[in-house]
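Chapter summary example: a protein plus zinc ion.
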Amino acid sequence: MHFRSSVLSETEPSIEPSATSSAILIMLSYINAFFALILLCSKLDNIDGAAVKSRGLGPAKPCSPDICKLPDCRCSGVDIPGNLPKEKVPQMVMLSFDDAVNGQVYGFYETLFADGELKNPNGCNATATFFVSHEYTEYQMVQALYHNRHDIADHTISHRTPTSWWKSANYSQLTDEIVGQREILRKWGQVEVEDVVGFRVPFLQIAGNTMYQVLYDNKFLYDSSMPTQKFMDPPMWPYTLEYQSTQECVIPPCPTGE
Ligand SMILES: [Zn+2]
């Protein structure tokens, strides 16, 4: 079975893959990294303290691997964690789908994830991440996906156009869209709030530091909004955002703060 994303070959606003065409394959050990996953933080035991700490600290500094170390910190880059030789790295595939979950696409998901169709090496069923936006979503289907252990993530309430709205959205507007959708997922999809930890912005149109501040302040743990064309082979591994990223900025405004 072969998946590929159309994300990098299309232009705004259709840059974002549709639900049925966006099965995104990331073969971290070898070839195509379409998104660099940005890990907002690995530990947020005290969100109030963390939020205060993150504000107003100025521009991010260059990342030093001597200071920024796993498991809590990782510099952006293509070096393999643990210095594993390339041929020893297991192939990893990430499947993700965006937008409304409803009858138009649910049959495809059912077929794709039918028992026994896609398995991990340990025998468990493969799962995907669903970045769910509110409009046109039928929440009993979200509930079923969640029940089957798929990762339910946030893709905002309105997914509104124009794309430029997302570019200039302020803190309050983004909070309404992002935290609001998590609350809707809780209320109508029965998805626990603490299980909604991932985010992808509509049209991949990020809003610089503001968007990441909203995500951080509200305990989101990762973002999957920034595509890359430069780091395809070898791909960039997921990294944390305490320091400057070396990933290119395809769709500005990009984050600059720490
Ligand atoms: Zn979308």
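Key point: The first helix runs from residue 47 to 54.
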